[in-house]
Amino acid sequence: MPAGLSAGTAGSEPLVLVALSGGPDSLALAAATAFEASKAGVRAGAVIVNHNLQEGSADVAAAAAQQARDLGLDPVDIRSVLVGDAGGPESAARDARYAALAEAAAEHGAIRVLLGHTLDDQAETVLLGLARGSGAGSLKGMAADTGQYLRPLLAIARTTTVQCCEDSGIVAWNDPHNLDTSYTRVRVRQTVLPLLESELGPGIRDALVRTADQAREDADALDHFAEEMAEDLAEISEAGISLPVRALAANPAALRQRLIRLAVASEFHVSLSRTHTLEIARLVTDWRGQGPIDVPGVRVERRENLLHFSAHSEERDAV
After folding, report:
1. What is the pTM of this model?
2. Helix 24-40 vs helix 57-70: angle between axes, to the nearest 10 degrees?
3. Where, in this chain's numbering, is ATP bound (predicted)?
4. Which of 170, 188, 241, 312 could pair with 299 in a Cys bridge, judged by C-beta atoms 3.0 to 4.6 Å apart?
5. Residue 198 annotated as binding?
């Protein structure tokens, strides 16, 4: 059973939910969770999300729910969602899925939701982040523990989960979307990673996962330092938030840019792109008397020795 699940007292065992698709990864996780739950002092249930993207998806969800019941999981909850198109089909489906999982966890009072992502999924995520130039934030891949969500299988290969189902006599569903090369991740899985292993040798997936672990350690440490510094440096007022230019200039770029992003995120709930972050940082590192910089939702200007952030909107400018 994954670490981080605390046992409850007799009669008050906490509930965990397995996010179950019916595929081999989540079915192997469901079987392992059902076997280990009582030993860990928790109750185990399952939530199945029907994305309604394929003909017969309701039947697939019902079959997965029955498999969960056969494994002894309870409660078993099927959630039907409508997937939009914001950010592309993969992103929209993911957003709808996580929203449904969060709702199910809240309604059932589950302390954790267990996700069946494997080492292969982690390698694909890191490679996609590298290809997109998304920086260390995406290179660190998926975290095993994000508070609400646990990924107990991140160190386990997909071949292992498939073998687990076969050895246990569990018939897994093979999602046709996993063969649809119109999806970027499928192309990475079927073409890019096999090509890399063919040309560079085996072990590419393990190497990518090691890279993710190292990137996460570094990124988490820098985030921690930035948060500690922000507590001492930030000056908050009704007009916004300010950071001292001298302190920003004295720090390495990685910390300086984290401080800028942290100030904007904490005060205005806006996630800055790298382009916008670097543009703001130029008010510190390349100061030539520039005027205010407007980024989505925020105006930034240098006032003598302070970098000042305030709310910005078209409505305010029109007044």
Report:
1. 0.81
2. 30
3. 21-26
4. 312
5. no
Q: Is there a binding annotation on residue 135? A: no
Cα(42)–Cα(35) distance, integer angstroms: 11
The response to whether 22 counts as a known ligand-binding position is yes
3-class SS of residue 303: strand
CATH tag for 15-206 (out of 1.10.510.10, 3.90.1860.10, 2.40.100.10, 3.40.50.620): 3.40.50.620
Q: Does domain 234-318 have CATH number 3.30.465.60?
A: yes
**Mean pLDDT in order along the chain per 10 residues (319 residues):** 48 90 96 94 97 91 96 96 80 91 97 97 92 75 93 96 95 89 90 94 92 90 94 89 96 95 93 92 93 93 93 56
Q: Is 25 annotated as a binding residue?
A: yes
Question: What order do you get walking across the sheet with 112-114 strand by strand?
Answer: 76-80, 43-50, 15-19, 112-114, 149-150
DSSP letter assigned to residue 288? S
How far from each other are the two terminal CA atoms of the chain, in whole angstroms?
58
Alpha-carbon torsion, ordered 246, 250, 251, 252, to 10 deg: 130
Q: Report which DSSP code applies to 177.
A: G
Q: Which pair of tokens denotes residue 212?
A: 């993710």
Contact in structure between 116 and 153 (CB atoms under 8 Å): yes
> Is 38 annotated as a binding-site member?
no
| 273 labeled part of a ligand binding site | no
